[in-house]
Write a structure and sequence with these properties.
This protein is an alpha/beta fold and 190 residues long. It is built from six helices and five strands. Strands 3-2-1-4-5 form a five-stranded mixed β-sheet.
Length: 190
C-alpha cells in the first residue's frame, strides 16, 4: 500500500496542545488545494499522572508523524492566562508535541491563537465554533464528519493558517532611490 504522502505535494500536521484533550489535524496540499486527511483528538483525562499524560502525548504525536509523514508541523502557541500552573502544564504539552516532531526532523511553526483565527475567519476574536464552521466551508467537510471536540478543528485551523502563511508570494524588495532602481533594472532604462 502506498503511503498517504504519495497523494500530496505537501502534508502539514496541526496541533492544538492540551493536557486533557489535545487536538490534531492533518492537511494535505495538492497543487494549491488543501484538503483534510485526518482530524481528531488525543484524550488524556484517563491518565491521573501529568507525566504519564506527557508520555502519551509524545507517543501519539510520534505515531501520527510516522503514519502520515508530514512535511511540517503547525502548533498553536499557548494563550497566556492568569493561571500559572495551567500555563506551565500547557507549555509542557506543547513542548512534548514539538519534541515528537523534532524527533523525526520535522520543522515547526508556532502561531498565536489570534493569528490563526484571523487567518481562518478574518476576525481575531472569533469563537471556536466560528472557526470550525469556516473550516467546514473552506475545506468542504460534510457536517457529519465534523468532530465533537473543537480541539480538533483548532488544530486543523493551525495547519491551514500555516499553509496560508507559507503560500504567500514574496514581494520584491523595493528600491530606496531612483539610482538603486536603475542599477537593479538597467533593461528598463532606454
Amino acid at each position: 500500500m502506498m503511503p498517504v504522502s504519495a497523494d500530496y505535494d505537501r502534508i502539514i500536521i496541526g496541533i492544538d496542545p492540551g493536557t486533557n484533550v489535545m487536538g490534531y489535524g492533518i492537511l494535505g496540499i495538492k497543487g494549491k488545494a488543501p484538503s483534510v486527511i485526518a482530524l481528531g483528538v488525543i484524550k488524556l483525562s484517563r491518565f491521573e499522572d501529568h507525566y504519564l499524560r506527557l508520555h502519551r502525548i509524545f507517543e501519539r504525536v510520534l505515531g501520527l508523524v510516522e503514519q502520515y509523514l508530514p512535511d511540517e508541523m503547525a502548533i498553536e502557541a499557548p494563550f497566556f492566562g492568569k493561571n500559572v500552573q495551567s500555563m506551565l502544564k500547557l507549555g509542557r504539552a506543547q513542548g512534548v508535541a514539538m519534541a515528537a516532531a523534532l524527533h523525526r526532523d520535522i520543522p515547526i511553526a508556532e502561531y498565536a491563537p489570534l493569528k490563526i483565527k484571523m487567518a481562518i475567519t478574518g476576525n481575531g476574536g472569533a469563537s471556536k465554533e466560528q472557526v470550525a464552521e469556516m473550516l467546514r466551508r473552506i475545506l468542504n467537510i460534510p457536517r457529519e464528519r465534523m468532530p465533537e471536540f473543537l480541539d480538533a478543528t483548532d488544530a486543523l485551523a493551525a495547519a491551514l493558517c500555516h499553509y496560508y502563511e507559507t503560500s504567500k508570494p514574496i514581494a520584491p524588495r523595493s528600491c530606496s532611490s531612483w539610482k538603486e532602481f536603475i542599477a537593479r533594472h538597467p533593461e528598463k532604462v532606454k
